[in-house]
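Example 9 (inverse folding). The structure is encoded as follows.
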């Protein structure tokens, strides 16, 4: 865990301050929702990656010891690292009342359980077990998953001192590319569910 005070000296220029990467991934809840839905939840992997990447960068800036945090594996195997991530978010933002009151353990458990159910439904759907019901359920579970991610993002933004996530609220060209790709995947998924083989 690291101290929540920002390591910025008063003598720093505006350019230097602008280059400081937040400890966790700040994004507006609206942008997160758009990208999560558009990519059928695949954005969650990037979300976990960015949180761990930012955290690792801040840790290495503040500590001399070598802490082995590998963002890519932690993003891919997120169910094993969600509790740790939320614990670090709460520790970092402990001086913010909203974050201090946050039940991070319960939130992490709910998210992990929902992710496990989602993975099971995806596997059943992929093997055509219980089709078309498992196909539809694997899409419907995106809603409770998104609700969990939005709730967590609210705490992450608050812990970093940017409750609205305003600095990362606009969609970039890369975001639009992912949205287009996601829409193509959505079309394929819908066709595979509702059209006969």
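The amino acid assigned to each position is listed next.
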């Amino acid at each position: 865990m690291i101290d929540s005070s920002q390591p910025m000296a008063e003598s720093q220029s505006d350019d230097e301050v602008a280059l400081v990467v937040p400890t966790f991934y700040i994004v507006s809840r609206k942008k997160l929702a758009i990208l999560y839905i558009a990519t059928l939840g695949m954005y969650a992997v990037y979300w976990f990656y960015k949180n761990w990447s930012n955290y690792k960068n801040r840790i290495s800036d503040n500590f001399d010891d070598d802490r082995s945090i590998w963002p890519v594996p932690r993003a891919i195997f997120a169910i094993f690292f969600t509790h740790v991530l939320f614990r670090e978010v709460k520790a970092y933002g402990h001086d913010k009342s909203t974050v201090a009151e946050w039940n991070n353990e319960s939130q992490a458990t709910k998210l992990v359980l929902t992710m496990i159910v989602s993975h099971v439904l995806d596997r059943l759907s992929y093997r055509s077990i219980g089709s078309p019901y498992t196909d539809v359920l694997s899409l419907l579970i995106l809603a409770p998953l998104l609700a969990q991610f939005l709730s967590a993002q609210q705490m992450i933004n608050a812990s970093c001192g940017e409750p609205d996530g305003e600095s990362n609220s606009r969609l970039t060209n890369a975001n639009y590319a992912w949205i287009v790709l996601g829409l193509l995947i959505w079309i394929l998924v819908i066709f595979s569910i509702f059209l006969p083989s």
